[in-house]
Amino acid sequence: MASDVTNGNSLIEVKGLKTHFFLDEGTVQAVNGVSFSIDRHKTLCVVGESGCGKSVTARSILQIVDHPGRIVEGQILYYGNREYNSAGGEVIDLAALNPRGKEIRSIRGKDISMIFQEPMTSLSPIHTVGNQITEAILLHTELTQKEADARAVELLRRVGIPRPEDRLKAYPFQLSGGMRQRVMIAMALSCNPVLLIADEPTTAVDVTTQAQILELLDELKAELGMAILLITHDLGVVAETADDVVVMYLGQVVERGDVDSIFHAPQHPYTQALMRSIPKLGVSRHLQRLDSIRGMVPDPYNRPNGCMFGPRCEHFMPGRCDAADPPTIQLGLNREVKCFLYEDDAKAASTHPIFAEGQSLK
Amino acid sequence: MTTNLNNLQTNGAAAADVETLLEVKNLQMWFPISAGFFRKVVGHVKAVDDVSFTVQKGETLGLVGESGCGKTTAGRCILRAYNPTGGQLLYRQDNGEVIDLVPLSNNELKPFRQQLRMIFQDPFNSLNPRMTVLDIVGDPLKINYGTSGKELEDRVAGLLRQVGLRPEYMRRYPHAFSGGERQRLGIARSLALDPRLVVADEAVSALDVSVRAQILNLMRQLQDDFDLTYLFVSHDLSVIEFLCDRVVVMYVGKIVEIAETEELFSAPLHPYTEALLSAVPNPNPRARTQKKRIVLEGDVADPARPPSGCYFHPRCRFAKDRCSQEAPALRQISPGHFAACHFAEELTLHGVNADGEMV
Predict the structure, then answer these.
(1) Cα separation, B301 vs B72, whole angstroms
(2) Do B311 and B338 belong to one domain?
(3) Do β-strands B20-35 and B40-56 pair in parallel, antiparallel, or remain unpaired?
(4) Whose CA is closest to A193, among A296, A99, A115, A293?
(5) Quick check: B67 contacting A, CB < 8 Å?
(6) Over the stretch B224-264, which tens digit does the pLDDT of each residue have?
(7) Residue B272 included in any domain
(8) At how many degrees (to 10) do helices A177-189 and A207-224 cross?
(9) Number of A:B CB contacts under 8 A?
C-alpha cells in the first residue's frame, strides 16, 4: 500500500495516511490510505470533488483535524527546515506528534503555514490586521513588537496592499474579499515557511481577484523558494499553477503525476471523466451536451466494495472492481494510478486501449 | 433573435417585437443607506442603475458579472422579490398583451408569480428541511390549483421523473439527498406551475464539476420539453458560454456589454469583458506560457460611491481623460452588439477562439 514515493528532493512524504472521523452514525473514512510527496520549491495540487478528503489531508499535515477526527494510521515525514542533504537531515513524523504538543506548535505557522478558503471566517473579527500578523511573528521569532510591526508592514506591502501602514489598524470587515485573502497570505508568510498550504484560496473570490491572487502566489513562490500545497476543485486553477497533481476520490489517491501528463494523458477513468466534464472556455459554446459522470459521489457511510469509483465507472469490470481494492500501479517516476485496468501489463501499458482514449485537450 | 434597443426606445411602452417576452427598461434599484439616530438617509447603494435589456421568448439570456455588480438584484427585481425604485418591466402575457410589472400590488402579481419562477443557488438552504419532497414540489400546485390526494402525487411523480429523480423518494426529506439531487428538487419545484420565464440565480455554482455537467444538461433538456425561457445569472463564464444564447455583462450596477454568446466571447467590445475572459483559468497546462493575462488592478468599485465617468476607468488599461469625466452610454456598435465604452470602435480587444485560446 505505502508505495515508495521518495525521489530525493522531498520536503514532505505522506505514507499510507488514514484520517477517520468517529461519529455516532458510524466512522467516516475521510482519508483512507493516501500516499504522495511534496517536493521542495514545487507546487503540488490536490484536486477532487467535495468530500474526497483533500482538505482533511491538508489539515492532517498540520495536525489540525477537527474533533472527532484523528489520524489513525500512516506517516507524514517532514524533512526538516534545512535544505535536504543526502544524510537525510532531521526527519520528523508529523503524524506521530501530539496535536497539542510543543513540537507541532513550533512547526505550525512557522515552517508550515496555511491559508484558508474563507478569509472572513478565518480571520478574527475583533483583532486588527496588524495584531493578527504580528502574533505569529512574536511567537516564533525573537523580534520586538516594534520590529514585528515593521515586518508586518513589509509583508502587507509585498502582498500588494496599498497604504500598509494604515492597514495595520484596520479590522477585517473593513477590507474587501481580495484584500482579506492577501492579509491571510501575509500572515502565512510572516515566518518564511518552507511549505505553504493553501486550501481553496480563490474559491470565495471573484475571477479577476482570483487571477491576482494566483499571480501573487506564483511570484512569492519564485521569490521565497517555498513549496506550495494547493487544494482545489477547479481544474483550471490546477492547470495554471501545478507542477505535480494528486487526484483524489472518496478518501483515496486515484492518480498522481506531473501536470502535463495528468491533463494530456490521464489514465484513471475518473480523471478522464473529470477532464471531459469541465466546460472549456471557447469550446463549450459549440457543444450540445456536456459530458458528465453518471451517478454521484457515494454516501461516506455506505462506501462501495472494491474500487470506490466502480459504480460510476464506464470501464467497470464485474467480479473484479467490486471484489477487491485496486492496486496502486507505478507507471513511471512519480506517476501512478490506482486501477485494475493497468494491473496485468503495467509495463506494456502504453498499448492498452484506454491510452488511445486519453483525452487530448490540444 | 436580434434585439433592437433603439427601436424599442422610440416606440415607448409597446414592445415592438412579438418575440420579446420581457423588456426591462431603465430598471433601477437603489438601496438607501441610513445613519444617525433618526436613521436619516445619507446615500444610496446603486445596486442596479438604469439597466435595459430584453428577454426573447425561448432563449437563454445570461447575466454575468462579479459579486456586487447587481446581477442577482436585477434577477430579483424581475421576479418582484424586490420592489424596484424605478423603471419598467414590460412582460408579454400569453394573450399577447404587454403589462408593466413594476406598479402592480402583491395581489395583482399573483397570476404572474406562477409564470415567473426562480431556481436558487444553494440547494442546502433553499429547501425546507421539515418538508417532504412531496410537500416541497407539490406545494405550489396545492396553493395555486388546490390539487390534492392522488392527483397531486401523480403530478409530483411526473415532475420528479422529468428532473431525473425516482418518484419513490417522494416521502423523503431533503437531508437524504445529495447536492445535485437537491438542485433537481429545486428545479422540479420551479417547474411545477408551468412557468414561462425561469430566473436561475447561480443555479450550478454550489455543485461539483461532474454533477454540474448533469444539471446543465438537464436544464437544456427541460428548456426543450417545457418551452422555457431562462434568465441565467452567473459569475462563471464557461457555464454561461455553454448554456446561453445571448449574454449581458454587468459592472457596478450598469450594463457594459450585450451580445450574442459567440460574438461576446470571440470579439468582446468592452475592456471589462476582455479582462473577465482573460481571467478565467485555462484547463490546459501547455497554454500557461502562451497566454498574456490581463490582471486588473484594484477591486470592484463600491456601488455606494462609484467613481466618476465610466465606473470601470480606474481599472481600465485603455482609460483616457474622457473616461473619468463622461459616463459612456450603452450603444449599438454592430447589429445586436451593444457596449458602453467611448472607444468601443477603436480598441482591438482579445477574445477566446473555438480552441480556447486567447486571440
Answers:
(1) 17
(2) yes
(3) antiparallel
(4) A115
(5) yes
(6) 888 899 999 998 888 899 999 999 999 999 999 999 999 99
(7) yes
(8) 20
(9) 156
- For B53-69, how does the pLDDT look when each residue is reduced to its tens digit (9 = 90+)? 999 999 999 999 888 88
CB–CB of A274 and B293 under 8 A?
A: no
Distance from CA of B283 to the nearest CA of A (A): 4
Task: Say yes or no: B227 and B287 in one domain.
Answer: no
Please check whether residue B102 is in contact with residue B116, taking contact to mean a CB–CB distance below 8 angstroms: no
Return the closest-CA partner of residue A132 out of A175, A186, A83, A198: A186
Quote the distance between the C-alpha of residue A47 and its chain's center.
7
Domain presence at residue B260: no
Contact between residue A362 and residue A282 where contact means Cβ atoms under 8 Å apart: no
Domain with B340 in it: 266-359
How many domains are contained in chain B? 2
**pLDDT per residue as tens digits for the range A40-63:** 899 999 999 888 899 999 999 999
Interface predicted TM-score (ipTM) of this complex, two decimals = 0.80
**Residue position matching grid coordinates 455506505:** A302
Nearest to A253 by CA among A243, A244, A240: A244
CATH number at residue B97: 3.40.50.300
In one-letter notation, the amino acid at residue B357 is E
Ordered by start, the domain boundaries in chain A are 268-281+290-357
C-alpha grid cell for residue B193?
Answer: 406551475
Is residue A302 within 8 angstroms of chain B, CB to CB? Answer: no
Q: Which three cell numbers stand for residue B262?
A: 459567440
- Which residues of chain A have a CB within 8 Å of the CB of B354? 282-283, 285-286
Contacts with A289 from chain B: Cβ below 8 Å? 217, 220
Q: Which three cell numbers stand for residue A70?
A: 484523528
Residues 233-272 of B with CB under 8 A from A: 235, 237-239, 241-242, 261-262, 265-266
* Other beta carbons within 10 Å of B30: 18
